[in-house]
Amino acid sequence: xxxxxxxxxxxxxxxxxxxxxxxxxxxxxxxxxxxxxxxxxxxxxxxxxxxxxxxxxxxxxxxxxxxxxxxxxxxxxxxxxxxxxxxxxxxxxxxxxxxxxxxxxxxxxxxxxxxxxxxxxxxxxxxxxxxxxxxxxxxxxxxxxxxxxxxxxxxxxxxxxxxxxxxxxxxxxxxxxxxxxxxxxxxxxxxxxxxxxxxxxxxxxxxxxxxxxxxxxxxxxxxxxxxxxxxxxxxxxxxxxxxxxxxxxxxxxxxxxxxxxxxxxxxxxxxxxxxxxxxxxxxxxxxxxxxxxxxxxxxxxxxxxxxxxxxxxxxxxxxxxxxxxxxxxxxxxxxxxxxxxxxxxxxxxxxxxxxxxxxxxxxxxxxxxxxxxxxxxxxxxxxxxxxxxxxxxxxxxxxxxxxxxxxxxxxxxxxxxxxxxxxxxxxxxxxxxxxxxxxxxxxxxxxxxxxxxxxxxxxxxxxxxxxxxxxxxxxxxxxxxxxxxxxxxxxxxxxxxxxxxxxxxxxxxxxxxx
Length: 514
Hints:
41% helix
């Protein structure tokens, strides 16, 4: 039974495993991609035989990827990018000099999918519905929805831009002043949000597990691919559409430019466009390939996008610090003897980065946000007394400094009581009106207290509301990968592997899910 469970978990976390593909080669095109492209991996395997191109995908978040390209960090490591949109990237100073040919591959608008019964109850299954109508129903508590974090996922960013543009009645690109004026209405809209996530695919999985959530703002392609058919609402005042531009970097060598041309041309052939549409529910972009009936007949009106990076960043910051339902985050942190030396230093730095020490855009948006409830639970032989912090809505600096001092004071020693400590985190009362999540970081196996089976039994005995709290597990050092994956699967969380990468980078990635 345990072996079967492990096999399932390994499949679920395959994206975290190192690839056996070569890092480079004369027939390899290295592509920095958004996680939304993962569903194209089976199709891309055909490109080697049919186009003579092996595609090496490296996944990253929207903002982090944009910074890698604009700063030049991607120049020697990647030949091309493939994000769902280049809109944010194009706003960064100097980015245009890094980008060469851009080839749009497919289309998917960001829309609202609702359970059919709820859509019928709201009267949204047969008439034109605007974002203002949706916002009014959200304000009145008539439905709930999930959406990805706009600081880490393009679907969430596109949704935020679309809602803000529509509710502000902007005729042109959204301005910083309009962001300020529309904030109260955005807060009403997002009061109905019950799920968040760092990627569109993980959000879809979380939505499928949570029967209390009525709908989801996501790519049309994701919504059409769900097992439970939804009513798709295409707001009459417009949407923001992903066009998935495969983009050559100007730094790419000449032989890689030829590979890019081959891959781009192959992806736009009628047969491949048809395959993309059939397998991933994205609309074809080649005129000769007709859209499938599943896309309906609603006209897609494109809403204006910010034309300044400062406005886009202000919109994301407003969402994180003023508008969204605030998070309740508990860090269960291994400070046993095996963490001494470089490992405890890495943990300190990872936490300090979340207090604002990471000044990159992605770092700024991953810091502990205003209104967030943060609890630290260091453990060794047993869980220590939880240390709570609440970041205020105004002037967060002093509390962030307190968290930084706490992180700097962490020391290593003793054994490893993983499951007693995780149980203590689940037994803490939830903050009303908050998203709740747990981060578990350990570098070894359990040596003290209850084992995994005892924790599982306790978890299953908890009230349903407490069981909705996911645990995001960080693999580090010699942690028991099998049991850690089991914890993530049990609690509806995810596994993040820091054994061969930066612990700070993994902590920052997890923030997209909180």
